[in-house]
Structures are given as structure tokens and as C-alpha cells.
Design goal:
By secondary structure, this protein is α/β, with parallel strands linked by helices. The protein contains nine helices and eight strands. Helices cover about 35% and strands about 20% of the residues. It has an eight-stranded parallel beta barrel, surrounded by six helices.
Length: about 210
């Protein structure tokens, strides 16, 4: 079963990560994702998170200008305040803040509200993830199944326990990192309704 068919059968919303394709092909890929009804996931990766090149701020502005795009901008940067100030004020459907180790999450969510209808928190090594989600009044949680910004890792499906905990409290949850067709059953069973796929959605076999 292909990723697309399997996700549809599980009622799982897919987002395609544009960093899975070369920079010159990202707008085309984003248009294709939008035409197929998928979200477009744009990873900003800088500072201590930088294990691979992310999407530039100029690219985010271009993506936000695409007609009918549902754009999720995932900020994996040390200077979250600087990135928030530089994002376009129109065209973003969701801002996702990588918040591991941050003690200013409430303020960051507040600052993000004028940029997008939804603000989610992305977590990896964060034991207080659910408490932070509640405290910040975020709209959902993105659970990283691989280390943020770092390529070459397989999805750690044991981290789906965070999805289960979030969904048990009625909060929307999704997953990102190493998502393939093989893991979709467990991802869906844990309660995730949103999944970010990179190469698995960019290639011809998706």
C-alpha cells in the first residue's frame, strides 16, 4: 500500500516537507502538494539545530504566496524571536515552535498568534511537554520522532507515547521525522491525525 492510499484509509492528514527536494524544486513541489490537498511543511533550521540546510526566510515568503497553500512553518532555530519578526504576516496556516528547553513558551505562542490561525509546539527531549502545551495555550503538539534538524535517523515510534498522552487530554497531535508507510498504523493508533513526510512523500513511489 502506498503512503498516500494508506494515510487516506486511516484519515491521516499528510504534510510534505519541502526540504526533501532540492531548493530549485521546492515551489513546484509545494504546488503539487497543495493541488493534492496536502499541507506544506517548511522547516527553518538554524543555530544549534542545524544538521542540514533548512528553508530560507525568502523561501517562506514565496511559499506563503502560493494560492490555497496550507503552510506549516516549523521553526527549529535558537533565535525564535528573530524568526517570528521576519515571517510573512499572511499566507501561513500554522506556526510550529520547537520549544525544547525553552522557559518563554507562553510569550512565544502569544507572539505567534498574529502570524497564523494555529500555533503548535514541537517537542523532542521535553519531559514537561504536556504541561507546557497547557500552560502556553497552544493549539496542538508535534512530536518529533527523530532529533530535530538532524538527517539520517529512523523514526523512534516509542515516542508515540507523547501523542497518546496529548490525545488522551483532548489536544490535537501530529508527528514528524522518519515517517514512512510502515509506521502509519501505529502512528494512527496512537491518536495522531497529522503526519509530516519528507522523502516518502516527495518520491515517485509515494
Amino acid at each position: 500500500m502506498t503512503l498516500l492510499v494508506h494515510a487516506a484509509a486511516l484519515d491521516l492528514t499528510l504534510a510534505g516537507s519541502v526540504i526533501a527536494v532540492p531548493a530549485a524544486e521546492r515551489l513546484r513541489h509545494a504546488r503539487s502538494l497543495t493541488e493534492q490537498g496536502h499541507w506544506v511543511h517548511a522547516d527553518r533550521i538554524e543555530g544549534s539545530y542545524r544538521g542540514q540546510a533548512g528553508v530560507g526566510l525568502d523561501e517562506v515568503h514565496e511559499l506563503a504566496g502560493l494560492p490555497d497553500v496550507r503552510l506549516d512553518v516549523h521553526l527549529m532555530v535558537d533565535d525564535l524571536e528573530g524568526d517570528l519578526a521576519a515571517l510573512p504576516e499572511r499566507g501561513i496556516a500554522r506556526v510550529t515552535l520547537q520549544c525544547d528547553g525553552r522557559d518563554d513558551v507562553v510569550d512565544l505562542v502569544r507572539r505567534s498568534r498574529h502570524l497564523a490561525p494555529e500555533v503548535w509546539l514541537a517537542v523532542h527531549d521535553e519531559p514537561l511537554a504536556l504541561a507546557r502545551l497547557r500552560e502556553a495555550d497552544a493549539d496542538g503538539m508535534l512530536v518529533m520522532l527523530t532529533p530535530p534538524g538532524q538527517p539520517g535517523h529512523l523514526a523512534d515510534l516509542s515516542r508515540l507515547r507523547l501523542v497518546e498522552s496529548a490525545r488522551g487530554r483532548g489536544w490535537p497531535a501530529g508527528v514528524d521525522g522518519g515517517v514512512t508507510d510502515e509506521g502509519l498504523e501505529r502512528i494512527s493508533a496512537a491518536g495522531a491525525r497529522y503526519a509530516v513526510a519528507g522523502r516518502a512523500l516527495a518520491g515517485p513511489a509515494s
